[in-house]
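Moderator note: this is an archived Q&A kept for reference. The question asked for a predicted structure of one protein chain; the sequence and the answer are reproduced below.
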Amino acid sequence: MTQAPSLDTLTVGDVVAGGSFPLTRDSLVRYAGASGDFNPIHYRDDVAASVGLPGVLAHGMLTMGLAVQPVVDWAGDPARVIDYQVRFTRPVLVDPMEGAIVTVVARVAAIDTDAKVARIDLAVTFNDQTVLGKAQARVSLA
């Protein structure tokens, strides 16, 4: 565990973390094994097409986990993330050859100095389109 960022140095609007996260079909298979979610829409084009999808989709929980990781790294300890919520707005299509890149920008949206908590809003995109709406993490910086 590293020292928590100082609440005194934060300003609403500050970008505190972010990154770009490449996904491949191999990533999806590995995540399926780790999570136990072997729904074939996450690795088989024919099954995805048979249910009307435009292609193989990344697992929603994988996308959600990738999105919060820069905040966890910035906070220095996963236990400091006391709440995390998102709304799934669009799927992440993972091309068999090119994969996909999910981009995250984490920005301070609110500061509760009494509770020593910062609300971090996450802009999570794929192909310049938002894939997670209302993505917010509350981080204890006590």
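Archived answer notes: The longest strand covers residues 100-112.
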